[in-house]
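Hey, I'm writing a tutorial for new members on how sequence and structure tokens pair up, and I'd like a real worked example in the thread rather than a made-up one. If someone can provide the structure for the chain below, I'll link this post from the tutorial.
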Amino acid sequence: MHHYGANAVQMKHTQADASRQVLDGLKVAVLLVGADRRVSFMNPAAEALLETSTQRGCGQDVLELAPMGMTLQGALIAAGQGATTTLREAVLRLPMRAEEITIDCTVSPLGHASDKPFTIVELNQVDQLARMTRDTTLLERQGAFNQVARALAHEIKNPLGGIRGAAQLLDGELNDKALREYTRIITHETDRLSSLVDRLTGGYGASERKPFNLHSVLEHVRKLTLVEIPQGLKFERDYDPSIPEVRGDHAQMVQAVLNIVRNAVQAMQSRGCIRLCTRARRQCTIHNRRHRLAVEASITDDGPGIDPKLMERIFFPMVTGRDDGTGLGLALTQEIIARHGGLIECASRPGQTCFTVFLPVEDRP
């Protein structure tokens, strides 16, 4: 009798594990809500959609975690009476996201007749496919643009080398110091242009791929920025201590994040708040590839926002909204992150601009 009881318990645990694996693998966000409206379970898709972790989300009021107004509250009341409600193309407004999300929401009762009834809330982002298609198109266009930029840079560097060589030969033939000053100016400027071309084409040395924690990158950039601008600028940090290490070049990633932060500082005219946030994401899709685990980092400023006319081209080289800008910073950032197998996205409106970086965590045997 005892043996059969043990088998039954083991089978029950096995079924529970299988159910959890199914929920974890779903692309639809699933929340389990108690009678007090507190969230008791959320799957990885819900963590990604609502931009929070299970540790932070569980225990919260679902109306605060998924702010949809009275529509969700009415559906929860109906579920308490045993009815299922589907809300089509509802608007989800997350406090730290610059753009609204369009979702289909299904609210269903679970264990309605029991002493401890629960409600299942399913959130399906209906504009996700359109966003993925848009991102793919932009990446293709950007790739083509970068190829043209590299070809153009190659054609520029060839005559620059000739000009520099001629200036050095002329410098050796001249005895007049005043005239030699001109040749040195030519040499200096050709070196500067050559360096600019290298930056344009992502001309880096061999990349050192070592494990590092993204918090060390964000903290390095934060401290460096505060040294440059000690007054008027404030940083808020919301770090997830559980994020795993990623593998790549620490110095390059510092440069990538620094470019984003410096753009934010310039947009805010060195006065305002920049929020740094990190999260660990499970079952994350990057460039149409599903990753078991990824790290997400967002950099949000409260500046005036990006001109909507520039939004689709901000990662292109030589595209800038400033008169004194080179338009290379974000292009280099995108190049570095892509080299790490990651993805960068941007959403902006007046008063809030957010750059979000996704970096895959390599599976280890």
